[in-house]
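TODO from last week: model ABC transporter permease.
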Amino acid sequence: MTAIAEGTDSQGAGRRHRKPLLRSEQSQGLALISPTLLYAIILLVAPIAVVIVYSFWTQNYLTIDKTFTLEQYRVALTEPIYRDLLMRSLWVSLLVSVITVVLAYPLAYYISFHGGSHKSLWLFLITIPFWTSYLLRVMSWKVILGYNGVLNSGLVGLGILDEPSTALLYNTSAVIITLTHAWAAFAILPIFVSLEKVDRTLIEAAKDLGDGPVRSFLRVTLPLSLPGVISALLIVMIPTVGDYVTPKLVGGKDGVMIATAIEAQFKRGANWPLGAALSVVTMTVVTVMAASIVFVIRQAGRRAR
C-alpha cells in the first residue's frame, strides 16, 4: 500500500510539474501586465526614443541629415536665448510649486483634521473648477488680470489717462498666478491623502509629552506628511516647466517659457533636431532638479524627527 501511495504521489507531482505554461502563475502575471507594458512602450518610451534620436541629427531647410552630431546640444546649452528661457522656466515652475504647496497645505490640513463628516463635500468643491477645460480657466484669468487694462483703456478713451496699462497681464507674474490656480487641486489632494494616514495617537502622545500645537506639528504631523508634500511639488513642478498654453495666453513677451521655443522649432519644419535637443535638455534638467528636491526634503524630514 505504501508503494502504491508513493507511486501515486510521484505521478501527481509529475503532472504538477508538467502543468501547461499558460497556467503557471508567472505566465498569468506576464499576461496581465503585457497589455499595459505594450501601451506604455508605444505611448511613452517610443516617442521619447524618437525625440532623442532626432536630437543627434541636423536639418538643412527641409532635409534631415542623419549624421551623428552634438551640434544641437551645443546650441541648446550655449545660446543665451535658450539658456535664459530654460532658467526662467525652471524658476517659474519651482516658484509656482512652492506657492501652490504653501497655499494647499493649510486647506488640506483643515479638511483632514477639522472636516469631520464633510470631507467628501470639501473635496467635491475643490474639484468643481476642473469641470471646465484648462483653456477656459486660463482665458478666465486672462479676463480677470486684464480687467485693469480694460478699465484703463476706457479711461484713456474718456481722456482721463494718457495711455492704457496692463500691469497684471502679459508678464511672468500673470503666468505664476494662473498656474498656481490651475494646479491647486493637484497639490491639495496628495497632501490630504498623506495627512489622512497620520496616526492621531502620535500627535496626542507628543502633546502628552509636553509639546505644544506648533511643536507637535513640526515634529510629528509635518514629517509624516512629507510624502504628500513631495508628491504635490513634483506633480505641479514637472508639468509647469513645459507648459505652453498659459505663457502663450497670459505671459506675453515677458512671460515666454522654454515650451514656446520648442514649439517654434517644430512649427512648419523649422528645426526639428534643435527642438528635440531642447526637449531632451529640459527633461534631463527637470529630472535632476526633481531628484534633488526629493533628496533635500527627505533629509530635512529625517533631521526634524
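Done. Confidence is low (pLDDT under 50) at residues 3-7.
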